[in-house]
Write a structure and sequence with these properties.
The complex is a heterodimer of chains A (115) and B (113). Chain A has 115 residues and is mainly beta. Chain A has no helices and 11 strands. Helix content of chain A is 0%, strand content 61%. In chain A, strands 2, 4, 5, 9, 10 and 11 form a 6-stranded mixed β-sheet that branches. A 5-stranded antiparallel β-sheet of chain A has the order 1-3-8-7-6, with no helix packed on it. In chain A, a hairpin with a 2-residue loop joins strand 6 (56-59) and strand 7 (62-67). Classes of the chains: A mainly beta (115), B mainly beta (113).
Protein backbone atom coordinates (compact mmCIF):
# COMPACT_ATOMS: atom_id res chain seq x y z
CA UNK A 1 0.00 0.00 0.00
CA UNK A 2 1.33 3.43 -0.93
CA UNK A 3 2.07 5.50 2.15
CA UNK A 4 3.57 8.87 3.00
CA UNK A 5 4.65 9.47 6.58
CA UNK A 6 5.66 12.83 7.97
CA UNK A 7 7.48 13.80 11.12
CA UNK A 8 7.17 15.46 13.47
CA UNK A 9 3.38 15.77 13.66
CA UNK A 10 3.75 19.21 15.17
CA UNK A 11 6.54 21.63 15.89
CA UNK A 12 6.90 24.95 17.70
CA UNK A 13 9.87 27.18 16.97
CA UNK A 14 10.89 30.75 17.69
CA UNK A 15 10.79 33.35 14.98
CA UNK A 16 14.08 33.59 13.13
CA UNK A 17 15.07 29.98 13.82
CA UNK A 18 15.48 27.28 11.20
CA UNK A 19 13.65 23.97 11.10
CA UNK A 20 13.53 20.77 9.08
CA UNK A 21 10.48 18.64 8.36
CA UNK A 22 10.76 15.02 7.30
CA UNK A 23 8.87 12.87 4.82
CA UNK A 24 9.29 9.12 4.22
CA UNK A 25 7.37 7.38 1.49
CA UNK A 26 6.68 3.92 0.16
CA UNK A 27 5.04 4.89 -3.12
CA UNK A 28 5.81 2.86 -6.19
CA UNK A 29 6.30 3.63 -8.97
CA UNK A 30 7.67 7.07 -8.11
CA UNK A 31 7.11 10.04 -10.36
CA UNK A 32 7.55 13.20 -8.31
CA UNK A 33 7.36 14.60 -4.79
CA UNK A 34 5.71 17.83 -3.78
CA UNK A 35 5.62 19.93 -0.67
CA UNK A 36 2.51 22.00 -0.01
CA UNK A 37 1.82 24.70 2.56
CA UNK A 38 -1.69 24.86 3.97
CA UNK A 39 -2.72 27.85 6.04
CA UNK A 40 -5.60 27.38 8.46
CA UNK A 41 -8.90 27.54 6.61
CA UNK A 42 -7.27 27.58 3.17
CA UNK A 43 -6.42 25.10 0.45
CA UNK A 44 -2.90 23.69 0.02
CA UNK A 45 -0.46 25.76 -2.02
CA UNK A 46 2.52 24.23 -3.78
CA UNK A 47 6.00 25.09 -2.51
CA UNK A 48 8.24 22.74 -4.50
CA UNK A 49 7.96 19.83 -6.90
CA UNK A 50 10.87 17.43 -7.45
CA UNK A 51 11.20 14.65 -9.99
CA UNK A 52 13.29 11.53 -9.63
CA UNK A 53 16.40 13.21 -11.02
CA UNK A 54 16.29 16.25 -8.74
CA UNK A 55 17.70 16.12 -5.22
CA UNK A 56 17.34 19.75 -4.17
CA UNK A 57 14.91 22.51 -4.98
CA UNK A 58 14.48 25.90 -3.37
CA UNK A 59 11.67 28.40 -3.20
CA UNK A 60 12.81 31.44 -1.27
CA UNK A 61 13.43 30.42 2.34
CA UNK A 62 12.12 26.91 1.64
CA UNK A 63 14.54 24.20 0.47
CA UNK A 64 13.40 20.67 -0.25
CA UNK A 65 15.70 17.70 -0.64
CA UNK A 66 14.97 14.29 -2.07
CA UNK A 67 16.82 10.99 -1.67
CA UNK A 68 15.07 8.62 -4.04
CA UNK A 69 17.26 5.71 -2.93
CA UNK A 70 16.16 5.90 0.70
CA UNK A 71 12.72 7.31 -0.22
CA UNK A 72 13.11 10.28 2.03
CA UNK A 73 12.55 13.98 1.61
CA UNK A 74 13.01 16.96 3.86
CA UNK A 75 11.79 20.54 3.84
CA UNK A 76 14.11 23.06 5.43
CA UNK A 77 12.77 26.46 6.43
CA UNK A 78 15.34 29.16 7.00
CA UNK A 79 14.90 32.21 9.23
CA UNK A 80 11.31 31.38 10.09
CA UNK A 81 8.62 34.04 10.16
CA UNK A 82 5.26 34.16 11.88
CA UNK A 83 3.62 33.71 8.48
CA UNK A 84 5.29 30.31 8.18
CA UNK A 85 2.83 28.98 10.76
CA UNK A 86 0.87 26.41 8.78
CA UNK A 87 0.57 22.74 7.98
CA UNK A 88 3.20 21.40 5.57
CA UNK A 89 2.08 18.46 3.50
CA UNK A 90 4.30 16.02 1.62
CA UNK A 91 2.68 14.53 -1.49
CA UNK A 92 4.09 11.77 -3.66
CA UNK A 93 2.99 10.97 -7.18
CA UNK A 94 2.96 7.33 -8.14
CA UNK A 95 2.64 7.75 -11.86
CA UNK A 96 -0.19 8.61 -14.20
CA UNK A 97 -3.74 7.37 -14.29
CA UNK A 98 -6.64 8.48 -16.46
CA UNK A 99 -7.06 11.39 -14.10
CA UNK A 100 -3.47 12.54 -14.11
CA UNK A 101 -0.90 12.10 -11.40
CA UNK A 102 -1.93 9.53 -8.79
CA UNK A 103 -1.20 11.34 -5.54
CA UNK A 104 -0.63 10.01 -2.03
CA UNK A 105 -0.82 12.68 0.65
CA UNK A 106 0.89 12.76 4.01
CA UNK A 107 -1.02 13.93 7.06
CA UNK A 108 1.14 17.03 7.42
CA UNK A 109 3.41 18.65 9.98
CA UNK A 110 1.75 21.47 11.90
CA UNK A 111 4.32 24.24 12.38
CA UNK A 112 3.82 27.11 14.77
CA UNK A 113 6.26 30.02 14.82
CA UNK A 114 6.23 32.09 17.98
CA UNK A 115 7.77 35.38 19.02
CA UNK B 1 -6.49 30.24 -5.00
CA UNK B 2 -5.74 30.13 -8.73
CA UNK B 3 -9.18 31.16 -9.97
CA UNK B 4 -11.06 28.47 -8.07
CA UNK B 5 -14.09 29.13 -5.91
CA UNK B 6 -16.11 26.71 -3.85
CA UNK B 7 -19.62 27.16 -2.58
CA UNK B 8 -20.87 27.09 0.02
CA UNK B 9 -17.81 27.64 2.21
CA UNK B 10 -19.59 26.28 5.27
CA UNK B 11 -22.66 24.11 5.59
CA UNK B 12 -24.44 22.31 8.39
CA UNK B 13 -26.98 19.70 7.37
CA UNK B 14 -28.90 16.85 8.88
CA UNK B 15 -28.35 13.14 8.34
CA UNK B 16 -30.29 11.85 5.37
CA UNK B 17 -30.56 15.13 3.47
CA UNK B 18 -29.04 15.64 0.01
CA UNK B 19 -26.17 18.10 -0.30
CA UNK B 20 -24.46 19.55 -3.37
CA UNK B 21 -21.12 21.30 -3.28
CA UNK B 22 -19.97 23.39 -6.20
CA UNK B 23 -16.51 24.03 -7.58
CA UNK B 24 -16.09 26.79 -10.16
CA UNK B 25 -12.87 27.58 -12.04
CA UNK B 26 -11.93 30.39 -14.36
CA UNK B 27 -8.68 28.79 -15.62
CA UNK B 28 -10.22 26.61 -18.34
CA UNK B 29 -8.33 23.61 -16.94
CA UNK B 30 -9.43 20.22 -18.18
CA UNK B 31 -8.99 18.15 -15.04
CA UNK B 32 -10.93 18.73 -11.85
CA UNK B 33 -10.85 16.80 -8.57
CA UNK B 34 -12.77 16.49 -5.34
CA UNK B 35 -10.88 15.57 -2.16
CA UNK B 36 -11.85 15.27 1.45
CA UNK B 37 -9.55 16.13 4.35
CA UNK B 38 -10.03 14.57 7.78
CA UNK B 39 -7.91 14.64 10.94
CA UNK B 40 -5.35 11.85 10.90
CA UNK B 41 -5.72 11.31 7.17
CA UNK B 42 -4.05 12.88 4.21
CA UNK B 43 -6.28 14.32 1.54
CA UNK B 44 -8.17 11.52 -0.17
CA UNK B 45 -9.54 11.57 -3.69
CA UNK B 46 -13.30 11.18 -4.02
CA UNK B 47 -13.95 11.66 -7.74
CA UNK B 48 -12.28 13.36 -10.64
CA UNK B 49 -13.21 14.65 -14.07
CA UNK B 50 -11.07 14.59 -17.20
CA UNK B 51 -13.47 16.57 -19.35
CA UNK B 52 -17.08 17.67 -19.73
CA UNK B 53 -19.32 14.74 -18.84
CA UNK B 54 -16.23 12.55 -18.21
CA UNK B 55 -15.79 11.50 -14.61
CA UNK B 56 -14.33 8.61 -12.65
CA UNK B 57 -14.09 7.35 -9.10
CA UNK B 58 -11.32 7.96 -6.64
CA UNK B 59 -10.38 5.95 -3.56
CA UNK B 60 -13.30 7.07 -1.31
CA UNK B 61 -16.21 7.45 -3.75
CA UNK B 62 -18.91 5.52 -1.88
CA UNK B 63 -21.84 7.79 -1.01
CA UNK B 64 -20.79 10.50 -3.47
CA UNK B 65 -21.67 11.35 -7.04
CA UNK B 66 -20.38 14.06 -9.35
CA UNK B 67 -21.36 15.87 -12.49
CA UNK B 68 -19.62 18.15 -14.92
CA UNK B 69 -21.82 19.76 -17.56
CA UNK B 70 -19.46 22.68 -18.25
CA UNK B 71 -15.70 23.01 -18.23
CA UNK B 72 -15.80 25.49 -15.39
CA UNK B 73 -18.13 23.67 -12.97
CA UNK B 74 -17.71 20.41 -11.07
CA UNK B 75 -20.45 19.42 -8.64
CA UNK B 76 -20.16 16.97 -5.77
CA UNK B 77 -23.40 15.50 -4.44
CA UNK B 78 -24.03 13.58 -1.27
CA UNK B 79 -27.32 11.86 -2.04
CA UNK B 80 -28.11 11.14 1.61
CA UNK B 81 -25.60 12.72 3.96
CA UNK B 82 -24.21 10.70 6.87
CA UNK B 83 -22.18 11.81 9.88
CA UNK B 84 -19.12 10.05 8.43
CA UNK B 85 -19.20 12.58 5.61
CA UNK B 86 -18.52 15.43 7.99
CA UNK B 87 -15.28 16.76 6.55
CA UNK B 88 -13.55 19.56 4.73
CA UNK B 89 -13.92 19.18 0.97
CA UNK B 90 -11.39 20.59 -1.47
CA UNK B 91 -11.65 21.01 -5.18
CA UNK B 92 -8.48 20.99 -7.27
CA UNK B 93 -7.67 21.59 -10.93
CA UNK B 94 -4.86 20.86 -13.33
CA UNK B 95 -4.46 21.63 -17.00
CA UNK B 96 -3.01 18.43 -18.46
CA UNK B 97 -2.68 14.77 -17.61
CA UNK B 98 1.06 14.99 -17.09
CA UNK B 99 1.07 18.32 -15.30
CA UNK B 100 2.69 18.29 -11.91
CA UNK B 101 0.90 21.28 -10.47
CA UNK B 102 -2.53 20.90 -8.88
CA UNK B 103 -4.23 24.05 -7.70
CA UNK B 104 -6.61 23.82 -4.78
CA UNK B 105 -9.71 25.78 -3.93
CA UNK B 106 -10.39 27.29 -0.49
CA UNK B 107 -12.43 24.34 0.76
CA UNK B 108 -15.95 23.71 2.05
CA UNK B 109 -16.47 22.71 5.67
CA UNK B 110 -19.45 20.35 5.85
CA UNK B 111 -20.98 19.22 9.12
CA UNK B 112 -23.61 16.49 9.12
CA UNK B 113 -25.55 16.33 12.39
Amino acid sequence: KNQVEQSPQSLIILEGKNCTLQCNYTVSPFSNLRWYKQDTGRGPVSLTIMTFSENTKSNGRYTATLDADTKQSSLHITASQLSDSASYICVVSGGLTGGGNKLTFGTGTQLKVEL
Amino acid sequence: DAGITQSPRHKVTETGTPVTLRCHQTENHRYMYWYRQDPGHGLRLIHYSYGVKDTDKGEVSDGYSVSRSKTEDFLLTLESATSSQTSVYFCAITDSIGAYEQYFGPGTRLTVT
